[in-house]
């Protein structure tokens, strides 16, 4: 009977469907886009950071007399099962070709880094070997940002790269390789970096002493839990130097930060989209109230034939439920098609997959709105007096 009534009032039912459909569409698209963005950022973060733990000086251990990570610490952390130690030095130098001045990060590493760290990939040329690193060869590998900033479209392989420290110390390196660009949004955040052997920095740097390191990266095997390893490493460093001298963080920390931001975005977009659903629910309520007025005589006839107020109440509630389900379903289909199109137009977001959590949330909210805003019209219809209804013109 409810379906027949909705068919008899096609235009009004269609407008109610449109309202709840647009609301569901808004909720689904906003939640879906935020989910796609969060998933893409997490995927790219995993590509950039991998499964690693990073040890570095704590904030309270900074200054001229601070304690830095040393070869003793590297030896203490080496040899742990499933862990590859990559000690690194970072310094800031200047590039100046007479026309451009640019700050460049000099990143020292132990050599053969692509084999030690699976997140490092050479695009052209090669990475310096462990032997070249140990002998402190003046060779350099550029990240993609440094190659484009310093050489433009020219091939940097084999070129000489002149840099200088703030105190005027000049160094000249031979470029032997260029790294692959980092993916997605992290490419725009990257800065020019020149990777050189650690012993080379110790030889030419005016500030870094031999066997001092800024960061010790521990690349973990896939089966190891980063947080558990971070706690173990923190314990070892605390035992060697005392508490609060060094900070150990896992790449899982960055992941949890991104996931937290993603949840905040989903909450914000979900609440914003729900406002459109509330408007759609109000539309259903208006349609149902108008329907009560138009069908007053029909309600009176049903009551005269034995229909109870509870039956009338269920009749109108069921009509509102059908409208919310149909409108929500159509809105969901349109939203999934939109998200599929967005994933094709923006490959950076990754392949499209149906987010069942988003679908369930959007459909559940639309059904709730339909039922909630159908209660008042149903209560009004079930409370009518049969005699008054039969006399209604």
Itemize the secondary structure elements and their pairings.
Elements: H1 2-8, H2 10-49, E1 52-57, E2 69-70, H3 71-77, E3 83-96, E4 101-109, H4 113-116, E5 122-125, H5 130-134, E6 139-142, H6 144-151, E7 160-164, E8 170-179, H7 185-189, E9 193-197, H8 198-204, E10 212-213, E11 215-220, H9 226-241, E12 246-250, H10 251-294, H11 296-304, H12 309-345, H13 356-382, H14 386-391
Helix pairs in contact: 1-12, 2-10, 2-12, 2-13, 10-12, 10-13, 12-13
Biggest β-sheet: strands ordered side by side in the sheet: 3-4-9-6-8-7
Distance between the termini: 23 Å
Strand portion, in percent?
15-25%
The helix/strand order is HHEEHEEHEHEHEEHEHEEHEHHHHH
Low-confidence stretches: none
Morphology: elongated
Give a short account of the largest sheet: 6 strands, mixed, barrel
Transmembrane segments: 264-289, 320-346, 352-376
Domain MacB-like periplasmic core: 13-234
GO molecular function, one term: transmembrane transporter activity
Subcellular location: Cell membrane
């Amino acid at each position: 009977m409810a379906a027949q009534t909705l068919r008899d009032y096609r235009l009004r039912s269609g407008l109610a469907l449109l309202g709840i459909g647009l609301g569901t569409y808004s909720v689904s698209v906003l939640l879906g886009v935020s989910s796609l963005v969060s998933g893409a950022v997490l995927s790219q973060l995993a590509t950039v950071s991998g499964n690693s733990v990073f040890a570095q000086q704590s904030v309270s251990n900074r200054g001229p007399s601070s304690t830095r990570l040393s070869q003793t610490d590297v030896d203490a952390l080496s040899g742990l099962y499933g862990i590859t130690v990559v000690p690194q030095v970072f310094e800031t130098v200047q590039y100046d070709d007479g026309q451009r001045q640019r700050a460049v990060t000099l990143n020292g590493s132990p050599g053969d880094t692509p084999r030690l760290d699976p997140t490092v990939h050479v695009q052209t040329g090669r990475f310096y070997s462990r032997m070249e690193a140990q002998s402190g060869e003046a060779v350099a590998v550029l990240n993609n940002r440094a190659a484009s900033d310093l050489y433009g479209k020219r091939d940097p392989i084999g070129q000489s790269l002149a840099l200088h420290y703030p105190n005027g110390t000049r160094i000249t390196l031979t470029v032997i390789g260029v790294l692959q660009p980092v993916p997605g949004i992290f490419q725009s955040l990257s800065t020019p970096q020149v990777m050189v052997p650690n012993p080379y920095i110790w030889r030419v740097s005016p500030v870094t002493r031999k066997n001092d390191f800024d960061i010790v990266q521990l690349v973990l095997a896939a089966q190891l839990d980063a947080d558990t390893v971070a706690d173990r490493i923190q314990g070892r460093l605390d035992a060697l130097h005392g508490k609060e001298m060094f900070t150990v963080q896992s790449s899982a920390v960055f992941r949890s930060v991104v996931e937290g931001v993603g949840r905040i975005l989903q909450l914000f977009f979900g609440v914003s989209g729900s406002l459109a659903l509330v408007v759609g629910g109000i539309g259903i309520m208006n349609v149902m109230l108008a329907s009560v007025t138009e069908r007053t005589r029909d309600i009176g006839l049903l009551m005269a034939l034995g229909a109870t107020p509870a039956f009338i109440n269920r009749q109108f509630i069921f009509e509102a439920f059908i409208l919310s389900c149909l409108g929500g379903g159509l809105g969901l289909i349109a939203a999934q098609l939109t998200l599929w199109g967005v994933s094709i137009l923006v490959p950076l977001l990754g392949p499209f997959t149906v987010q069942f959590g988003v679908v369930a949330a959007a459909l559940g909210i639309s059904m709730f709105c339909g039922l909630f805003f159908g209660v008042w019209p149903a209560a009004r219809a079930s409370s009518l007096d049969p005699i008054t209804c039969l006399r209604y013109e």
